[in-house]
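--- STAGE predict ---
source: upstream dedup step, 1 unique chain passed
mode: sequence only
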Amino acid sequence: MASTYKWTGRTVRGAVQSGEISAASREEATTLLRRQGVIPTELKLKDDKPFGGLFAMGGKVKDKDIVVFTRQFATMIDAGLPLVQALEILSKQTESPALAAVIGKVKSDVEAGATYADALKKHPRVFDDLYSNMVAAGEAGGILDTILNRLAGYIEKSMKLKKKVKGALTYPAVIVTVAGSVISVIMIYVIPIFASMFSNMGGVLPAPTRAVMAMSSFLAGPGGLSLLVGIFGTITGIKQARKTDKGKFIFDTIALKMPIFGMLIRKVAVAKFTRTLGTLVSSGVPILDGLDICAKTSGNKVVERGVQEVRKAVAEGKTIAEPLMKTGVFPPMVNQMISVGEATGALDAMLSKIADFYDDEVDNAVANMTAMMEPLLMVFLGGSVGFIVVAMYLPIFRMITLIK
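--- STAGE serialize ---
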């Protein structure tokens, strides 16, 4: 069944043209256009929407799928398979439908005359700046298979780092959610029963009992709904604020200064920066491009601004270590080690050592934080429930004493 494709391309004389063509497949459309003397630079289905195929055919592409694809692709290139043939094979055998669709589009672009790196740049949601720039360096240096293996290793280590951070944040979040749910159920459904019983008895209730009953009345009534609306509004407001550069910078600054989590976030930022820059430098990516990519992929506006300042200083002829120290984000040890790496001409190796060290530091920080927070959260949960129980039984104990 024929489909209609929208195309943009160049003629043999270099003129840019665009139009529509009917063909059974993307490959057939490319062939027909070439017969007409047009080299297509962009070819897509008429009813395609930006990234529509990505979401329609399986959702987001996972990092794990990218790692498998990258390693398999590196093996095929190292074995001497042509680029297009390797992409054709991988598009058919990948387990992710979303990634298969993207690989198919990349293959079509490569067949149309684009470089592999340029074809990847058309899919920034799957292949970020770091990935496409490293591929471009590998193509230029004739070491694409080596670069792809480095990329796969980098993504795997980034996945492990992300998993550690998620693990550190998930545990307290689960405990707090469970504690909040238990306390809410007690306050909304259990306490009113006691309140009804105590109101029939008359007399003055102890202060803790009155406090718990007032809180229960607030949560079970309109106040509870107002509280939920307020929490929802606050979360929505924070999300909207984080969509702006200024808002994100403010929240990221606060995050770095938090008592417990701030140090963990800082260590993660250092590990990610050094790992990324080390991988880019060792792959032949120019240092200014590498710093720009590190800034954009940092995930923290404070770190991003600091790295951009470093990039400006390097563009003016300065070393990396000197302006890096002025940012105040990176510890003195990191600055000194980078300075030594620059002086000895082994910056990439030094950056990798720093990244390995801070990966271990993140491991230790997560383990220590979990060990410290576990008893604190248990005390919070047990203390909250215990206070409510004792407050409700105080009047009963007083009644028993009076009866005796």
